[in-house]
Amino acid sequence: MIIFFPAKVWTQTSAPSQYDTVILHDHIIDGAGNPWYSADIAISGDRITAIGDLLDARAKRVIDATGRIVSPGFINMLGQSGASLLLDNRALSELAQGITSEITGEGTSMAPQNEKTLAALKPLLGQYHLTFDSTTLDGYFRRLEKQGAPLNLGTYVGAEQVRRAVIGFDDRAPTEEELQQMKSLVAQTMRDGALGVSTSLIYPPGSYAKTAELIELAKVASQ
Hints:
Number of strands: 12
Order of helices and strands: EEEEEEEEHHEHHEEHHEH
Number of helices: 7
CATH architecture of the largest domain: Alpha-Beta Barrel
Structural class: alpha/beta
CATH class of the largest domain: Alpha Beta
CATH topology of the largest domain: TIM Barrel
Shape: elongated
Oligomer: single chain
CATH superfamily of the largest domain: Metal-dependent hydrolases
């Protein structure tokens, strides 16, 4: 849960701790569409373990949330942090807004990558000294997991990304062989954990895609 305020925090040391953290006197908005209600919250490790009257509970840390709101973290459904998390994994701009989960991959996505897709990114990658040691979504997730990230991250596979990887920026329909390559890339990226296919039809080369092409990619994702 995210606490949207600078809170008064103190430590209890006179008795063994029952919880790691207790948040007192807060107004809870639980994200289920209910009106706010007053309660205290106890946290042990990374779990909320109690909600109710916890005024007498012992904790390593006590937060006074009088007059403040406690709420679950927000979900950014149109995030663009895929590459920036590799450069700076603190995600301060998201966390400062209370965002704890992000969905990326609108049109373009972090995978699949190959020489064609990376060529267009070369100036940007060089500026930030960013390299890709894997061209798959599985490789990207492994890298992110290894270095750590404070956000829950999910992604679509971008139809535009797949088109770039196979056709580049040509304004034409794919050949049958190219379409099969595109479908294969969608299948692999879905197996690696993508949530579905996303389009961004206002931007080239995504704007060059016809309806039939997108249907074929969506058929693969639906499997």
